[in-house]
Write a structure and sequence with these properties.
alpha/beta; TIM Barrel; 10 strands
Length: about 425
């Protein structure tokens, strides 16, 4: 049985117990949330080498790190090092978004190397297989796509991004309104082009029950992708995005009815005044399903600093009820992220997630800040470093003041306000 079916039958699985211990809640809290659809327990039933992770209402806001090759950079060794960096930096999950090289071999190697849950976007491999065979991407069939999804399940992938809401109707809605940037999701663009060239409906929507059968078999969580997410703030919350979200709400219900866990992916580029409304809209239309957001980014003009932009948007989204933040790196929109970009992106998202947890009143969140304040009052440098989100950087930047006999840093020296207060 899947985690959802276990929960609905009143049973607390071993995975739920593990997640409850990690979250500091009662196992019944996890079971009830899974049964109601506002919590998902993420772990493929064939991927037992990892510890399961719970995402959703009343739990710590989670952070995902995207890694993966491209056609320009397809070095597996680098991607495996990104796994190590992601784990060390405190990511909760990793998504393999590889598009270059032997994608099946890369995925298997990443799964083997990672102690964290792994997500993928199967349409990338299906499209890449067409290019490798020197065929047009739009010549792939529904069977090609589902064969890749089955392979992902066999390999142990824990959650799948699938663009089931990119339909002829939702694409028409986006086109009718008009967009500055059109479709910016790779999976969304591949799907929209496929439908246009084949004059057919999206296979993942048309054959959704087939997707549910595979997901149920491996207890993979479906992450219903936002293929029509806005790529600039001018396109935010338009007809295409909202129409897709309405469809995702309907598909989420169908998934739950079949015993399949589901979460919803969200925007994208959204002006700061609209972020809370976007979260509320998802929670309303999708019956409280966990919300997985990319950023969101409340401005378009910060290339090189989009990890900061996303942290601002992520903190607001998390405070409003988003459950899962997909990191954004400094190299977003510019290049494939390197190792330092991955680390920077995770740390920025972790800061946003913690800010959100304070706003949500999550037990233990505010206590960490109170602990830091106490260490600062005592000028306890070891305590401050040990409490920091990024201990390595905090320790590296610390300069104790010689003039203040190390009772202060070199910012203020003898004029340290806290030191003077103690005297």
């Amino acid at each position: 049985m899947t985690q959802l079916e276990e929960a609905r039958n009143g049973r607390i699985s071993e995975e739920m117990k593990i997640c409850a211990e990690k979250e500091g809640v009662f196992p019944e809290f996890i079971r009830k949330g899974v049964a109601e659809g506002n919590i998902v327990v993420v772990r493929n039933n064939r991927h037992t080498a990892i510890s399961p992770v719970a995402i959703g209402k009343g739990l710590r806001t989670k952070v995902n790190a995207n890694i993966g090759t491209s056609g320009d950079h397809a070095d597996l060794a680098v991607e495996l090092e990104k796994v190590r960096v992601s784990v060390a930096a405190g990511a909760d999950t990793i998504m393999d978004l590889s598009t270059g090289g032997d994608l099946a071999a890369i995925r298997k190697a990443i799964i083997k190397a990672s102690p964290l849950a792994i997500g993928t976007v199967p349409i990338y491999q299906a499209a890449a297989a067409m290019l490798a065979a020197k065929k047009a991407i739009v010549s792939m069939t529904a069977d090609d796509i589902f064969a890749v999804i089955e392979q992902n399940g066999e390999d142990g992938v824990d959650f799948l991004t699938v663009h089931c809401g990119v339909t002829r109707r939702s694409v028409a809605s986006a086109e009718a309104q008009g967009r500055v940037l059109g479709i910016v999701s790779r999976g969304g663009s591949i799907t929209a082009n496929w439908m246009r060239c084949n004059d057919r409906e999206n296979p993942l929507y048309e054959h959704y029950d087939r997707l549910l059968e595979i997901s149920h078999r491996y207890d993979m969580v479906l992450s219903l992708g936002d293929g029509l997410r806005p790529g600039c703030i001018a396109d935010a919350t338009d007809r295409g995005q909202v129409q897709e979200l309405i469809l995702l709400g309907e598909l989420a219900k169908r998934a739950r009815d079949k015993g399949v866990q589901v979460m919803i992916e969200g925007p994208g580029h959204v002006p700061i005044r609209d972020i809370e409304a976007n979260v509320q809209l998802e929670k309303s239309l999708c019956s409280g399903a966990p919300f997985y957001v990319l950023g969101p980014l409340p401005t378009d003009i910060a290339p090189g600093y989009d990890h900061i932009t996303a942290a601002i948007g992520g903190a607001i989204a998390g405070a409003a009820g988003a459950d899962f933040l997909c990191y954004v790196t400094p190299s977003e929109h510019l290049r494939l992220p390197n190792l330092e970009d991955v680390r920077e992106g995770i740390m920025a998202s972790r800061i946003a997630a913690h800010i959100a947890d304070i706003a949500k009143g999550l037990p233990g969140a505010l206590e960490k800040d109170a602990l830091m304040a106490g260490y600062r009052k005592a000028i306890d440098w070891e305590g401050q470093i040990s409490t920091a989100i990024d201990r390595e950087r905090a320790g590296r930047l610390l300069e104790k003041s010689a003039t203040a006999k190390e009772e202060g840093c070199t910012m203020c020296g003898e004029l340290c306000a806290i030191r003077l207060g103690k005297e």
